Amino acid sequence: MKVGRFRTLFASALVFAFAASLQAGFADEWRTTSSLIGPSKYGENFQHYDYVNPDAPKGGTYNSVVTGTFDSFNPYIVQGSPAAGLVGFGGGLLYDTLMDQATDEGSVSHRLVAEAYKYPADYSSATYRLDPRAKWHDGQPITVDDVVWSFNVLKANAPQYNRYFESVTDAVAISDREVEFHFNQKGNRELPKIMGDLVVLPKHWWEGTDASGKKRDITRPTLEPPLGSAAYKIASFKPGSEIVWQRVPDYWGAKLPVKIGRENFDTQRFTYILDDNAAWQAFTKGGLDDIKPENSSRRWNTAYNFPAVSAGDVVKQVFKTTSPEPMQAFILNQRRPLFQDRLVREALTLPFDFETMNRTLFYNSNTRTHSYFQGTELASSGLPQGKELEILEKYRDKLPPELFTQEFKLPVYDSPQAERKYLKRAVDLFAQAGWVIKGGKMVNAKTGELFKLEILGWNDTDQVISSPWIANLRKIGVDANLRMIDQTQYINRVNNFDYDVITSQLQQSESPGNEQRDFWSSKAADTPGSRNYSGIKNPVVDALVDRIIFATDRDDLVAATHALDRVLLWNYYVVPQYYRAVIWLAYWNKFGMPQMQPSYRGADIDSWWIDPGKEKALAAKYKGVN
């Protein structure tokens, strides 16, 4: 987990103003780097990331364990469970995007398939010019037809892209190397830049036929390895249990600034194991899992005492980060009538005793989350004032009155009396919403219906987080239970919003924009596969999302985001949990790595490489380790 970088409103307004003036000055001029906050530290003469070893050796195998299973190589549709190395938003290991999001700066992208882009001063369109060297693994060039086709099929079939590019009306080839995206509104400062996030897919492959002569269909799952363009391709696989990726020796983009010193492993092997405990055992023995990102405080503090750690053959390392924190929370699904009353949702927030959990379960390593934009200047605090208050005043009659008079605060269990106080308050809120305790059970005062909720989970962490909350909910008569299912079922049910409560993380950036529609909009609430997990349908939220997207400057963006954050918090759509200000990694000591790692991301494993001497020593000492 990550911790964000704080800035003063005044300083950030100056940065944004400078960036805006710079963008205006360069309107309709080609550029190879884009930024939403300020100029990239590398400028337009970007050679390679300053933290990488540009002479990093290539070779070796990076082994990883993945829990669950897979049944598809098409990650852009709701159906199926994509294999490791494929992602639903972006290119993963297989595909390149028009531009590549920077690893060491927020809201910055550098050239990839597109060598440059430009846009007019009114932000009504964006033009991307393709690198003539860009090609698919079969040697055919990546064309503007591929870009246009990719935009059309992704917007039609991929929920995240549909919301992200909602304001993009079409993509048009205007020359052999240039594609122009048209927008339905002017003034959306983010859109020209984020068009670079478009993944480019091979039109000729997807519109062709497979070995049996059957026409391929991008709207369906497939286990035929697709044609790609990025640094890796699928070398072999065992359905549901293993996938092996091989580095492409003549990868077209290997000498681009974003790639130099990175993507150094010749092979990446992902082995699927059904549960977390078995995955842990695989890591301790070596051979199947080389690097373990650790999320369990208990395990990090107590379980890394096996022989390989004592011998120094497994290394524990803490990486600090400077990017925004995710909102990790229990998501209350308002598609269920049970959670449509704000008083009920607030009541469910009160029994979550973070302080006791942090002390007894998490070794005081976590911090309570108080904002959807934690760790950034975008997080609301205190009472609304200034431009934020001006924005919120327009919706006063549609907002909780407390929003204007009270600072939003979550319960703090800091004394033996706290539990009684907060549980009593929860019971009072339930009573106001028409629920009372009878015979020790929370029931509807009119119908006698039992208040019953089910938390859906799939790994051990879900059980650790849920159990204390469930125990406190039961103390006030709520029939709360945790249902554990396998990962594939879990993904399918989440994609179709078939749950009462889930634990999820929502990652924000320092420059929010079009993705907010996928998180909160009324339209996304009815779109399977969207990230509006709470099922929010709130006209005020919709309006604030648009206000963010069409912010006129940084100050306006910050104020609008404060307003959205405050409205989301006061509507109690989720029960916030916690974050950790660092990334914990444990790894078998077979790697070389740069002296620095990017502080924004924390750790860039793509910049690591296999050290043959270390690998050989481990292989001699531990059977099966490579």
TrEMBL record:
Residues spanning the signal sequence: 1-26
Localization terms from the record: Periplasm
Chain intervals for the UniProt region annotation (Disordered): 508-531
Domain Solute-binding protein family: 113-524
Keywords attached to this entry: Signal
A Pfam family: SBP_bac_5
Domain of life of the native organism: Bacteria
Entry similarity comment: Belongs to the bacterial solute-binding protein 5 family.
Listed name of the protein: Extracellular solute-binding protein
Organism: Mesorhizobium argentiipisi
Lineage start: Bacteria, Pseudomonadati, Pseudomonadota, Alphaproteobacteria, Hyphomicrobiales
